[in-house]
């Protein structure tokens, strides 16, 4: 067997649009201080440690945190006790044209306090996009899941199809695709972004403005709508990691069936890494085209123009490059095989998943859009990958 | 078979976790206040890398790299009913670099090919080829200072973090969360390996098995250690490498003043 089969290669991620990989717990308003166009995230361990004996400070802080948090302003308390919030911050992030700062912020995933893109998120996104390239008879397994009788758990609806298509983890071609966590991202390369939910109601663009008396409230003007605020990596930033795409990922072996026989696209690439890149480029092209059609229909010129930029980048890529959409707020279609579903499929899905709002005539009918200075800016999560 | 110990190569280095490292404790027991999917820890409660994990992974990688993963070259180590559950390479080829470095077991062994034909096959004894194992892998202890105060401030537990992952349903997009404990990237462990140099029936190993061991180290750097390695965890790097050679005659001397025969900050500079 050739030695190169065992060598891992470097992947480079270039962030094209703000990319958010959500962490576990939301950051609450008492955990940060806004100063100008920056947010300072407080290091409570150090704050408590160094001010433990400051008369009544800890009492006041505890009272504030256990009371109504809406009335609590940590900056005022710190100022009262002459404590500089800058000295007690873990990191600071710039607000990237955020106009409505919500009371909680979606954190970016961190390892020991350091921003990074987990290999699991990257690999999961690749797997989701690979499912969009499957042969029709394999996609049918997913369609068949919608015909299950009795009580079905929506969290595990695709399990049977996943197993039929890719087998158990031990026998899956994905065991031959290794993707490491990325290098750490400098906090200067991360910012805070504002996201709004575009909702198509009766063929018109509306903006989600929360829930009123149990009913979803959608408004015409985005400035009156709700905002989701999240930590994200800025466009233009490059990060690295290692990736191994083994021959068996494509060709399979006695135990594992390869991806080549599952893909409904004619792939010409010579090497396994280039095979993956070529599949991704083909799938992403189709996905982007569908999104352009969607946004064009609802006259979202700015987003259409953003997607045309992505399409131009996609068309100029080398054999070892591809684009993918990854992470928080990238929507139903990026993560599922729903791109192949019709009204009939969504009618069945609506019966199974009664808690979600599924509209068979148009699903999904929402998109999450990044706003900058109150204007529609772009869609989140698009990255360019180069495998070296 | 005449076997003479000519000397020992001792390889000392640090193993750096380039990404988070999850070597599971195995029984998945959950203590009160504990977390799912914990990492293995020593008696002091600090994570470490068991020598068995390192040696097992290196053996497995070498089996592939030396072309030994074939049904007639694998023996059934663990069976489940009539099915071979875990197979490893073992043979009686005295020149086999995998068996020579990582060792053979006494007793009878059934190859996977024989087992698939007849699960009751008696198997063969490789005893004629068995010699003391050349490679010894010590447990690698955590270098506490490698987990800095700044990292510690952000850890969920004293030495480790909890990573949350979601498995997303490909039809509904509903998330199934799971969590696992891992040693954060940047942590370093002090490692030591010994490669015995033998003279077998008049033939001196020389540096053959040392070279094979360095190959195994390189293969590991291009693979992963521990669990969940295909999706991020377990990328490791060998750093601050020192190789010593102790001739068997050195053990009769009073002085322990041993100088390294090679040093390098990393494998690619060795």
TrEMBL record, chain A:
Residues 12-330 form the CRISPR type III-associated protein domain. GO terms for molecular function: RNA binding. Keywords: Antiviral defense, RNA-binding. It comes from the Bacteria. One of its GO terms (biological process) is defense response to virus. PANTHER family: CRISPR SYSTEM CMS PROTEIN CSM5 (PTHR38007). Belongs to the CRISPR-associated Csm5 family. This is CRISPR system Cms protein Csm5. The gene is csm5.
UniProtKB/TrEMBL annotation, chain B:
The gene is csm3. InterPro entries: CRISPR-assoc_RAMP_Csm3, CRISPR_Csm3_endoribonuclease, RAMP_III_fam. GO terms for biological process: defense response to virus. Residues 251-270 are annotated as: Disordered. Residues 14-237 form the CRISPR type III-associated protein domain. GO terms for molecular function: endonuclease activity; hydrolase activity; RNA binding. Belongs to the CRISPR-associated Csm3 family. It holds the Pfam family RAMPs. Keywords: Antiviral defense, Endonuclease, Hydrolase, Nuclease, RNA-binding. This is CRISPR system Cms endoribonuclease Csm3.
